Amino acid sequence: MSFTNLGLSPALLKVLSEQNYSKAYPIQKSAIPAILKGNDVLGIAATGSGKTAGFVLPLLMNMQNRLVTKNRHITVLTVVPTRELAVQVNEVFQTFVSGLAKPVKSMAVYGGVSINPQMIGLQGVNVLVATPGRLLELVESKAVHLSDVQILVLDEADKMLNLGFKDEMNRIFALLPQKRQNLLFSATLSDDLNSITQVLLNKPVVIKITPETNILSQIDQVAYFVQEERKGPLLRYLIKTKKWKQVLVFTSSGFKADAVADKLIKNGIDAEAIHGKKSQWVRTEALRQFKAGDIQVLVTTDLLARGIDIEFLPCVINYELPRSPKDYIHRIGRTGRAEAPGEAISLIAPDDEHHFKIIQKKMGRMVDRIETDDIDLRGF
Ligand code: AMP
Fold first, then answer.
1. Residue 52 in contact with residue 80, Cβ under 8 Å?
2. CATH 3.40.50.300 domain span(s) along the chain
3. Is CATH 3.40.50.300 what the domain over 3-209 is classified as, yes or no?
4. Ligand 1 pocket residues where CB is under 6 Å
5. Which residue of 8, 52, 291, 334 sits with most ligand 1 atoms within 8 Å of its CB, as the best mutation to test the pocket?
6. Model confidence pLDDT, tens digit, residues 84-134
7. Ligand 1 atom closest to the CA of 52, numbered from 1
8. How far is C-alpha 52 from the geometric centre of its chain's CA atoms?
9. Which of 4, 16, 25 to probe ligand 1 with, by most ligand atoms within 8 A of CB?
10. Do 342 and 335 touch, CB atoms closer than 8 A?
């Protein structure tokens, strides 16, 4: 379906065509009209389904009539769980604000970097994309005010509403006006989220594009069964023989991510590791280079499991499995995005087998099994 009949302005349609968005993805087809009508929306959509543009486009239309003009009082607040996602969502806002009649300024704020430039940069900002901790710091120092927020977006809503962010989110909710439009988007819907959204949302339009288990239809999943000590050589064998343009490798700790990346580099593979213990500058730069195709292998933790969009990423490898089956779905969803195919490989050692069975059961899908004992890994 084309974007033309969804109620968007000609100027936004022009930006869409400049971006080569020729047809609206299903989440966009459903969410855009519902948000334009001013409804609260709960959108459950696959990662990579285009949900960001699904809320950014109609929300920009809506905010034009409700633009708050007081300096440092923002009109649209989007809260996200990670710094990388804040930058990415803000880029989508920045792409589309050029199609608005009134000038609108958007900005991303997140921790791990100096607060002062953010305080200065918040002059005249209307749309803010933020991680919770830094947002509260900025509110406390009066660099930004949330009392006039007209539209609230929670991206990766299940993550934002679970225990880890609970206190910070409650403090943020208390700063917002009661009357506002609420948009919650998530790739997975937990029971928790169900009960909280009932409190947070006012008669929401619920849009569920694909059941969680079908998210993965275009991702080809395989499991390589391998002895623990052969995981490293097998990873290098796969990277060298399959000749993927790019690979995202997940480990369960930052320490392991560094160790895996070091070994890859020593074996002549162009790799970099990023995780929560690296400086924000290093994280941002490595992700930028990987997104630009300048690094072949990025090794990371669940830091990058959610929401991060890497265009045409052909392959994700679970060097180690995540604890939660949901995180498995988020991780492998970094490939197979924007209607492109993708491959997700898990390296399963004997000790991982039981947990992998649980993941497959929760996912409702069995993964093809490949034995690796006969693969000659000498030299890798
Ligand atoms: P998201 O799920 O919002 O992270 O989007 C995933 C990717 O799909 C991003 O690279 C978007 O730029 C791209 N995208 C979103 N909507 C469309 C569309 N209608 N046509 C083409 N690409 C799109």
1. no
2. 3-209, 213-371
3. yes
4. 21, 24-25, 28, 48-53, 309, 311, 337-338
5. 52
6. 899 999 999 999 998 888 889 999 999 989 999 999 999 999 999 999 999
7. 3
8. 9
9. 25
10. yes
Q: What's the chain's length in residues?
A: 380
Please say whether the beta carbons of 106 and 129 come within 8 A.
yes
Residue 282, SS3 per DSSP: helix
Looking at residue 204, the DSSP 8-state letter turns out to be P
- The SS3 of residue 377 is coil
pLDDT digits (tens, 9 = 90+) for 280-333: 889 999 999 999 999 999 999 988 777 777 888 889 999 999 998 888 988 988
The one-letter amino acid at 118: Q
- Sign of the dihedral defined by the CA atoms of residues 164, 84, 204, 217, in that order: negative
Structure tokens at 129: 């994309």
Cα separation, 93 vs 12, in Å, equals 12
Q: In whole angstroms, give the CA distance from residue 286 to residue 296.
A: 11
Question: What's the CA-to-centroid distance between 19 and ligand 1, angstroms?
Answer: 10
Contacts of residue 131, Cβ cutoff 8 Å, sequence gap at least 6 = 79, 80, 81, 82, 83, 86, 109, 110, 111
Between the CA of 57 and the centroid of ligand 1 the distance, in Å, is: 12
What single-letter amino acid sits at 337? R
Token pair 């300024």 is found at 105
For ligand 1, what atom is nearest to the CA of residue 25? 19
If one looks up domain 213-371 in CATH, what number appears?
A: 3.40.50.300
Nearest CA to ligand 1 atom 6: 48
Which structure tokens are listed for 359?
A: 């993941």
